[in-house]
Amino acid sequence: QYFDGIEMFETAVETLRDRPSTALLEALVMLGWFHVRFGKSEQAKALANEALRLWQHEGVKVLAGFGSDAHTLISTTSLVQGDHEAALHWAKQAAHIAEQRGDRFNLTIAHYNLCDAYIAKGEHDAAYYHAQQSVMLCRQSGDRWFMAYCLNNLGQLMRIQGDYIAAREHYQESYRIREAFEDSEGMAVALSNLGRIALLQERYEEAWPALERSLNLYLATGDQGGLLRVRCLLAEACTAFGDFDQACDYLRQALAATQQLDATPHTLMVLAAIGALAVSVTMPDAGAVLLCFVVQHALVDRETSEQAQLMLKRARDMLPDAAYTACLLYT
User: Fold this and answer.
1) Is the dihedral of CA 164, 165, 167, 168 positive or negative?
2) Against a cut of 0.85, is the pTM above it?
3) I need a labelling partner for 228 at 20 to 30 A (CA). Which of 138, 254, 276, 301 fits?
4) Whether the Cβ atoms of residue 254 and residue 231 lie closer than 8 Å to each other
5) Exposed, middle or buried by CB within 10 Å (0-12, 13-18, 19+), for 193?
6) Looking at the predicted structure, is the pLDDT value of residue 62 above 80?
7) How sure is the predictor about 2, in pLDDT bands with cuts at 50, 70 and 90?
8) In Å, how far from its chain's centre is CA 40?
């Protein structure tokens, strides 16, 4: 559980901080990963930079092992904060360093991060290449646990391309692996992805239990980013059922949680969902203002922007020209 993990690594860092060592470097990076899950990306980046200084200036060695390289952690925090170019820069550095020292574990994460960053930028061919590389490395090392992460990326790419059947297969395989490892957070991710596919296919009766179970698993682990995403999906499901009050409740909870996160793209995702709900309940002017803000924001990821643009077009069709122009001026 994340709550226990963060406490354990905080104690380790406090104990080891006065003695530069590989153990301290590992503890700093692992604590940083836990902060990412709790939505504290600035704290995670500070820990990663401290670990990086140990490696660069103190000559502390980095052991081969998943997530032990500070470069991949900085790449992840940059992506969470919406800085896609920085995410690519740090992931490329991580890949180069891992290749030089024959560290297949961190090389796999570097390719995974590169895939994530290219997806966020909307460069799907490059993303697919790195997704394949990460899958290949997992197969070579026999690592099924991280394979589940890589399958989620492949599923995401298939979903974006509209191949929902292939996406569903990748997500189902990811879930089966996570279930075998009794990995609650991983099962939550896979279930939210399966719920999203069911929503896209308008299989709402199937989407609801998957998303509800995902929410409960996220609540147990404390993954704040995951909670935001699944609450937005549950709001979408409620909207499809016509339960607008419940949709509002989920989005209200999600919006409140964004105030505790260092993750502007997550906030924009929630605002886009609120805008979409406003359009769905025939408040196109209010929805258009929010959706315009999201689309024009420098830190919005490609997928959120494209979804917001689709709903904005729907709002545009519902509004007189003067009213729509006023919404644009307001933003």
Assistant:
1) positive
2) yes
3) 138
4) yes
5) buried
6) no
7) low
8) 13
Judge contact between 130 and 156, C-beta under 8 A: no
If phi > 0 it is left, if psi is from -120 to 50 it is alpha, else beta; for residue 39 that is left
Count the alpha carbons within 13 Å of 32 in the hemisphere toward its beta carbon: 28
pLDDT for 1: 59
pLDDT tens digits along 188-203:
999 999 999 999 999 9
Residue with tokens 């189902």: 172
Neighbours of 139 (CB within 10 A): 12
Are the C-beta atoms of residues 106 and 69 closer than 8 Å to each other?
A: yes
